Amino acid sequence: xxxxxxxxxxxxxxxxxxxxxxxxxxxxxxxxxxxxxxxxxxxxxxxxxxxxxxxxxxxxxxxxxxxxxxxxxxxxxxxxxxxxxxxxxxxxxxxxxxxxxxxxxxxxxxxxxxxxxxxxxxxxxxxxxxxxxxxxxxxxxxxxxxxxxxxxxxxxxxxxxxxxxxxxxxxxxxxxxxxxxxxxxxxxxxxxxxxxxxxxxxxxxxxxxxxxxxxxxxxxxxxxxxxxxxxxxxxxxxxxxxxxxxxxxxxxxxxxxxxxxxxxxxxxxxxxxxxxxxxxxxxxxxxxxxxxxxx
Length: 295
Prior knowledge:
It is a single chain. The protein is mainly α. The protein is built from 13 helices and two strands, in the order H-H-H-E-E-H-H-H-H-H-H-H-H-H-H. 67% of the residues lie in helices and 1% in strands. A two-stranded antiparallel sheet has the order 1-2. One of its GO terms (cellular component) is plasma membrane.
């Protein structure tokens, strides 16, 4: 096939550019990150401090002037916490949990996948059967089983998300590492009797992670959604450390009473966060896909 024809075919397989939507997503995601970092400085109220929460102002509608000397722009929740402050602090929890769990899951999954490809035999069989078993179950089910077993807490929900996500990285890393183990530089390293750990982490792993790296931003979005789901079900972060999922759950019982703002505004913030992460992650994946850069 001629190079020009091949380029035309690959161009036809490309997805249409996201354009303004992608630009808006990048701006929105950057805004979320900056707001999360600056939350203690810009939030009108510290939702972790009971001395700053006035119970008699619970479920106040948007625009109500509060006893703390500031206006509740988005109202308060059922505990009297300012919803703007809850969203800002909830962003910190959601982003910290999701980024940490996705990074550690990627490290564990990549190491497991590359090790399975390098050692082969029973090591490969044991790791990949575990991966197959985990990927045959819904991710939310695995996270639910893990968090019920481990108990509540931020550290435990991070561990539960790691357990739910590592297998995806392992399968991708193994598929790439299988082809890398047959290349001459790995044979040369073995002939030089280099330590196994050095061959895996210094030579094989760096050449096998490219496809998995493109998966990390998307998995961060999945982790945000998983954490929000677990928190909505009451199995996530403790109630004194609000996340976006628990903020939505706090207003669920008030939906039929007309107090829509308690769940609506945190829900919109959660939707915007997940959507912006997924769109930016998809852009990263396409930009690193060699099929989108024909020679």
